[in-house]
Design a protein that fits this description.
The protein has about 270 residues and is mostly helical. It has one domain. About 75% of the residues lie in helices and about 0% in strands. It starts with a helix and ends with a helix.
Length: about 270
């Protein structure tokens, strides 16, 4: 892998991991349009590690409070809002973990085709637009109840299908439940931490058994670019949606899905 491929792929991953536009779809499409060879599991692992580092760094104060209060609650202290939020992140991760375990091989095959990516972009883009237009409320992430978390967790499980967007579908579910745009995004980002970490552990397991030595220069570029771009993406996305909302991302998804249908399905 040359430096240009490493930068482009890491930039795409970092910018789209937390936007409601499907990072998996964009990484697949980069390969389709450029003709580059598959980047390999080691590079996938390192760019996801960069995204994970970014979200942990951005929400470090919230994560510290959640971790402290969660352990305190386990030791018998009163359950605070941060302790409850930590439980919600854990519980909300379970459906996606089960779906990934059961359906990984199915999704890795035919469903990565441009037609299915286009369908995911369009259908779930329209759902996001509907939720943002008509169901947005003012609830915070601290107001979530168990039933709300189960709905969002089940929605996240759908993100295993390319084109869906993990952040997009979880924000859609949260908006339908009456959360504000900012709260929907923040909970979606916190919910990404166990998922990205688990994916990284699985990739590490596969990497340890790979016969090809790692390209440490490309991995270093990938991690750095992914981490910086993901951090900036989180910061500016939260500011953007408070002022403008989700509709520009809906339009983008529809346009990209239509383009894929035009070029690959006609």
């Amino acid at each position: 892998m040359d430096w240009l491929q490493a930068v482009v792929l890491a930039l795409v991953q970092g910018l789209t991991e937390f936007l409601p536009v499907s990072s998996a779809a964009h990484l697949i499409l980069v390969a389709v349009f450029t003709g580059w060879a598959d980047q390999g599991i080691d590079f996938d692992m390192i760019v996801h590690a960069g995204s994970l580092a970014a979200v942990i760094a951005y929400f470090r104060h919230e994560i510290a409070a959640m971790t402290r209060d969660w352990f305190a609650a386990l030791a018998g202290a009163k359950t605070t809002g941060d302790a409850r939020l930590a439980w919600w992140v854990i519980i909300g991760t379970i459906p996606a973990g089960v779906a990934g375990f059961l359906l990984k091989d199915v999704v890795a095959g035919a469903l990565r085709a441009p037609f299915w990516i286009a369908c995911g972009l369009i259908v779930f883009g329209l759902l996001l637009g509907w939720a943002d237009w008509s169901h947005r409320g003012e609830r915070s992430e601290y107001s979530l109840a168990l039933k709300d978390v189960l709905v969002i967790g089940l929605a996240q499980a759908l993100a295993i299908f390319p084109g869906t967007s993990r952040s997009g579908i979880t924000m859609t579910a949260a908006l339908f439940l009456g959360l504000s745009r900012g709260a929907a995004a923040r909970f979606s980002f916190l919910l990404s931490i166990p998922i990205i970490a688990a994916a990284g552990l699985l990739s590490t397991r596969d990497l340890l058994g790979a016969p090809v030595p790692a390209d440490w220069t490309a991995l270093g570029i990938g991690f750095t670019v992914s981490a910086i771009s993901a951090y900036l993406c989180i910061h500016y996305f939260l500011a953007f949606i408070r002022r403008i909302g989700m509709q520009p991302f809906v339009i983008y998804r529809l346009a990209l899905g239509g383009m894929l249908l035009y070029f690959f399905v006609r």
